[in-house]
Amino acid sequence: MSALAAGIATLDARQVRKGLDARDFSAVELTSSALEFAQVENPQTNAYLTFCPERALAAAERVDKKLASGEDPGPLAGVTVAVKDVIVTRGVRTTCGSRLLERYVPPYDATAVIRLEQAGGIILGKTNCDEFAMGSSNENSAFGPVMNPFAPDRVSGGSSGGSAAAVAQGTAVVALGSDTGGSVRQPAGFCGVVGVTPTYGRVSRYGLTAFASSLDHIGPFGRTVRDAALLLQTIAGRDECDATSAFAPLPDYLAQQNGDVKGRKLGLPREYFDGLSSESAGPVLKGVELLKKLGCEVKEISLPATKYAVACYYIIATAEASANLARYDGVRYTTRVAADTLSDMYRATRGAGFGAECKRRIMLGTYVLSHGYYDAYYLKAQKVRTLIAEDFRKAFAEVDAIIAPVSPSPAFKIGEKIDDPVEMYLADIYTVTGDLAGIPCMSVPCGKTAGGLPVGMQILTRHFDEAGMFRLADAFEKAGGFTG
Ligand code: GLN
User: Which ligand 1 atom is at minimum distance from the Cα of 211?
Assistant: First the structure.
């Protein structure tokens, strides 16, 4: 077991399976070690809000039983998973990073959670995040920020900062996050791991606490492309419980990772490289050079509507959020602040429970939807959203994939942007576009800054072409691209 404990932080899904098959360790042994390791490491980052040892060990026992009886234990057998705390888990507290839900224990499981456990995955716990997934730094969590595993005075990124940090620290093999405007890709970039935002509708949103429903995605994290693709494979596909989940057939992502990317046409959008810090540009451009060496053809393209993307996103996302957050009224789900009248109770509960960023978004969203402003803001933003999607459609007529930075700069200092929400919003410029268009996109590590901070490179492809995206990312990883 000590050999296991020593190597636990770097195990990938394939090694887990090999160890189980060879009886080097049982799933229960692995899970116990992983829980112990995660609990010891957690104070360094504050990545987990809740551990669920009983659930984890019960899942591990099921895997061991299947192995003992010669039954297939599933593609994720024994693989430890951290789950962002906006994804509901039956019987396990789900806070959404909010004081309001500090004691909320959901009565059901999200579809993604059910599927990953059916595949043999072991959920160790729930990870810290910005309140209701609103933020880019994890500083909006009611339970404190998540520290970057590479630099404790810096942010892990947000809003899925806990999931990204857990995978980077090695306290889980893979993790689930959610992405509405970049919340999987941006923390993945800041923490040096792989983060995937699938096509809108590829993964069921059933059980994902709603932030902005037309933009919300569940997405996987892994230390390797293969692990992230494997997790996506197990959770993707049509689900009757989510009317927006797609019927599109689910290809075998792993089978297509054959390293052959010769002749793939890649586009570099001009608008994504202007204004990029040199610290981030260096590793990304080096990554592009490597892709060229692998036989890809690279050309410059233009996505002219990019300049409107942040404004467009923060109108649509806040409009939808203002409606979705109306359910936290003190009657259902949340802790309640008592008052003499019903409306006073609503006011007192929401006033005390929501953090500053949620309140800001409820006000902004209510404003852009209000009579007299709806046409000027909300309707206009919907039209701009169409332009952004059109930009991508035109680009994908010429290229197979788009390569871009993930964020204008690497992980910033904790506290650096917290008093300037607009500055914080502007840092989402390169990630919100993919969500607005609903296309698959991912962040892969592409090296570090001189100061040792990870930098991410973004890959975007056509709707439902996750397989093409993974193939490119996997070839990049195998060619040594992750270390720059
Ligand atoms: N940073 C963006 C926001 O604050 C994106 C969040 C997300 O993707 N959940 O809205």
Answer: 9
The whole-number pLDDT of residue 228 equals: 98
Between helix 466-478 and helix 278-293 the angle, nearest 10°, is: 90
Residue 440 has pLDDT above 90, yes or no: yes
Q: Give the DSSP H/E element, type plus range, for residue 124.
A: strand 122-127
**Is the CATH code 3.40.50.620 the one for domain 265-310+376-483?**
no
Which member of 84, 126, 417, 448 is catalytic? 84
At residue 6, the pLDDT reads 66
Distance 249 CA to ligand 1 centre (A): 29
Residue 444, C-beta contacts closer than 8 angstroms, at least 6 positions apart? 194, 225, 456, 457, 459, 473, 476, 477, 481, 482
* pLDDT (0 to 100) of residue 83: 99
Q: Tell whether the model's pLDDT for residue 275 goes beyond 90.
A: no
Closest C-alpha to 18, from 62, 60, 79, 81: 79
Q: Are 178 and 220 in contact (CB under 8 A)?
A: no
Does domain 3-235 fall under CATH 3.90.1300.10? My reply is yes
Give the distance (Å) from ligand 1 centre to CA of residue 3. 40
Say how many Å lie between the first and final Cα of the chain, rounded. 34
Catalytic residue among 32, 136, 137, 159: 159
The domain segmentation of the chain, as residue ranges, is 3-235, 265-310+376-483
The answer to whether 194 touches 188, Cβ cutoff 8 Å, is yes
**Is 41 near ligand 1, meaning CB less than 6 Å away?**
no
Res. 1 pLDDT band, cuts 50 70 90: very low
Q: Is the pLDDT of residue 464 over 80?
A: yes
On whether the pTM is more than 0.85, the answer is yes
Is the shortest distance between the CB of 134 and ligand 1 below 6 Å? yes
The mean pLDDT value of the chain amounts to 96
Please indicate whether residue 213 is annotated as part of the active site.
no
Domains 3-235 and 265-310+376-483 share a fold: yes
Does the Cβ of 317 fall within 6 Å of ligand 1? yes
Report pLDDT digits (tens) over 319-361. Answer: 999 999 999 999 999 889 999 999 999 999 999 999 999 999 9
Q: What's the whole-number mean pLDDT along residues 302-310?
A: 98
Q: How far is the CA of 418 from the centre of ligand 1 (A)?
A: 14
Whether 399 has a pLDDT exceeding 90, the answer reads yes
